[in-house]
Write a structure and sequence with these properties.
heterodimer; A: mainly alpha; Leucine-rich Repeat Variant; about 65% helix; elongated; B: about 475 residues; alpha/beta; 10-stranded mixed β-sheet; two-stranded antiparallel ribbon
Chain lengths: ~325, ~475
Amino acid sequence: MLSYMYFKNLYDKKFDKWSLISDLLIRKAVFYDDDELEGDTMIPVTARAEKLMSNKHFRKLLINEIMSAKRSITGISADNLKHLYVQLGLDKYAFSNLSSNKWHIRAKAIQELTVMDMHEFVDQICTYADDKNDLVRMEAQSALVQFNGFEGLSFLETLNSPISNWHQIKLLQQLSQLPPANIDMTSWFTTTNSSVIIFTLKLARVYQRFDLYYEIVSCLDHEDPAVRHEAIHCLNEIYTDETSDDFISRFLNEILKNQLAMIKVMETVGTEKDVLFLLDLLTYENDEIKISAARALVQSNKNGMVSLEEYSLKAEQPINEIVMHIKGEVAA
Amino acid sequence: MSWQTFILHFFTYGILLYSIILLICYVLIGAFSISETRSYLRKNSFTDYRMLASSSETPSMSILAPAYNEGANIIENVRSLLSIHYNNLEVIIINDGSKDDSLEMLIQAYDLYKVDFFVNQQIKTKPVKGVYKSTNPVYRKLIVVDKVNGGKADALNVGVNIAKNDYFVCIDVDCVLEQDSLLKLAKPFLESTNQRVIAAGGVVRIANGCEIEGGRLVKVHLPKQFLPRIQTLEYIRAFLLSRMAWTKLNGLLLISGAFGAFDREIVINCGGYSTETVGEDMELVVRMRRYMEELDEPYKVAFIPDPLCWTEAPTTFKILGRQRNRWTRGTIETLRTHKVMFFNPRYGVLGMLSYPYWLFFEFMAPIIEFLGTIGMIIYCCTYAVNWSAVLILVGVLCMGILYSIFAIMMEVLTYNQYRGRKDILRLVGVAILEPFVFHPFVVWSAIRGNIDLLRKRNSWGEMTRTGLATAKKSS
């Protein structure tokens, strides 16, 4: 333990020195005077720094610092950093790391090339979009979106591996930085990969793709309950006068979670014609269905509260507490 | 060989064999822990939690915090919970029939008013007297529930009934959470694609001696008092080694009641927290796992090594004894309730590995250690000591110390919360002292837990705390 602490102390001191050298190098690149750095122009690098480039620990430190700086700046300074990255041959190290046996090295290399805007490696990165390792896959997919925007999502057409909810959030976040594009997504609805359909539904919802309404409704009949759930959620944003009928016709065959989701969406899509259906739900044994139906009744109709109170007076099972609860919600 | 010699040998070598198997388990735990922690840290280096914080796609979460006579610090504690970074969040404080003025204080501090609230009793609980919300939009996340006293498990069940989100996080109201704790805890639920994550836990650390301001942890210090300091080591060992190793094997049976996230749907399907045990946290996880095994659906109980929650450790032997007594009773009750899983291949890792480990090395270890100590005293008195066996036992003891030092090493290599070299050396000192000073007391408390259970004494045991709001002053 003591020897570990001793060596760690020595390493920390060396690390501090290296930090200074890499900071200096990055500062020099960021504030480099030449208006336009041509391909063969060299940013001055000290002999000490050049010698250290053969040390993989120093290289790791320098790459991390360059990436960190590149993430926080744009314009000429960012281009200068990219120039420095290529000048030091760091792109070649990253390229060779792409074929490493270790997943974290491959993932890191993809991340590095993405942050450094190395478009020329897109084709190589593309081959990792369906990698068996989830982190490598995620980094490759993010890279494709980073380089090609919405067009980069074309990997979805052939993707066999699942996209986790975490990664879906990340991709949506990346896409939110770009101007919306009306890409063709219809083929993604027919894939056998449920996570791709779920992600497509999210895209349709976020980008208000009303043109995909019938594809979305068709997902209500998908065999995977998670796809059906996302389709219900999506119809909260993209709906027509027929949406509530689409729900009602499928309601009895749905699992409880999706039934509740349908009732929730009916708060938005429900109309006068759905009152009888919602009143009928108040006779269900499940209290969660009752309270959701009461809420939908009130939210979707001007006279919903009146209908609910009238029903409450003649109901076989007392629902006074539910009525009071809904009244409280409306008042708040 | 006379029967006395046979008994002597059986006893001596039996305990020796047990110790050696336990040691092998520790070595395996260490190896699995290294593997899991390394994998987690590598994956985490690609993670940007800010992305989740700003996304509207984050899963909704409810914090459930039962409170019983917490009047001294409840206002600050609730403020701390309300300040946590998370998009879709509700904070539910359940006043479990407190005898003090906790509720009145909350009403006044957070402008609460009583609302008409229909409580859907998906899990049967003691009656709810009232549900309160704030008139101040700043506190719109807050819901306070006043109920008839029924214990922690009952209070949590009320919270589960009232929560409207897909996941809930149960915490002790006096704990201090890291600001990004929920973002980190949400990740396992989001990243799994082939297994349903039914629960997730994070590391709980000792807050005694730390600087806390406005309900937030400002600076970490090693506790100055002996008992909290020794518990710091104990928590590092338990969370960084044991729980990480069991996570690797997908065999984790315990998520601390002080801080854990659960899939609400599965909890309701399982019937919620059991009010029949004092170890409701462990019992729920075991029941959820058993439920998933019986459904034959792929699932996972996740655990992350990030220090997310800081809690106050007992500072006196009296309170510590009560806590350990209760933990022992909780373990036995849980194992007894789910005895059908014992070496039952139907339950996979849960039945073949986790359950037997807990039975042999968590429940039985203090009993065997206690009997061994008594036996050793008798041998010494009768001059029948087998010195080679004693030497091996000393070796086992040294290995125990080494295991603690290994845990400290893991801490230094990973999260390194106690940065000062002096603090690390102090922890090493504690690791050397622990087997002689602290451990015998823990064993004795566990024995008392066994006795209390046999006598059907199943009280929770009052846990008096000085309060973390005062931690800064005490440091």
